[in-house]
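Dig into what follows:
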Amino acid sequence: SAQAAQNFSLQQPQTKVSVAVGEMLTLRCTTSPNAAPGPVKWLKGWGSGNKTIYGQTKMDPSSRVTRAVDGSNTDFTIRIRNVQPEDTGTYYCVKFARSDSSVDEVFQRGNGTEVSVYETALVPGMVAAAVVLCFLLLLLVLFVALCMYRRKRQGGVGSPGTVAMGSFSSVPLQCCAGTLSTPSEVLDAESSHLPSQQSSKEENNIHYADLQPLPPAPRHGRSPGTAPTEYASLRVAAK
């Protein structure tokens, strides 16, 4: 037994391993061929709370734990399918030796492999789709903001123009609303809208205003339907 212990070696090369949820975990362990009688087991944890993961016995076909090289006497690498968060922990590859009392005792163990399980990250396709969706939403927001800005600007510029056009159009309607009988009444009505100017030295008065027709133009030069034009003659007397 002492000679077997000196010639025996157990290699557990992995110190830390990280695996995603649902993936397969591989734990490596190899031994030398010359070993004392006894099984090689994989234990999760060490001490009183350890749990046997693989015991070199007939395995249940539905078990998640399988050997990488089935039937080998030197390669005791195992694989754990569909890893879950509760699989997190430290795993030990242990060589047991059978004593005279037929009880398996620890012969040699590995340094242990610390296993951490993390949540599955988003696949690249989902990440790309999320980026494209965010970009489209940004373009939509910018388009809506531009439309609102243009509408507000057009409304601000058009409002004064509308008021101005309305005020200008009301002037001829007010001037022409009534029907004046004589040309002098037309001048009186227009002069009432002008600002009054008073002077102590001189004052201008309009005595009368006559509308006289222009001399008739030759018929051959007049286009059909052209009406004769009129002009106004004003006489002013100054005091």
Q: What stands out?
A: The radius of gyration is 55 Å. Confidence is low (pLDDT under 50) at residues 159-181, 193-202.
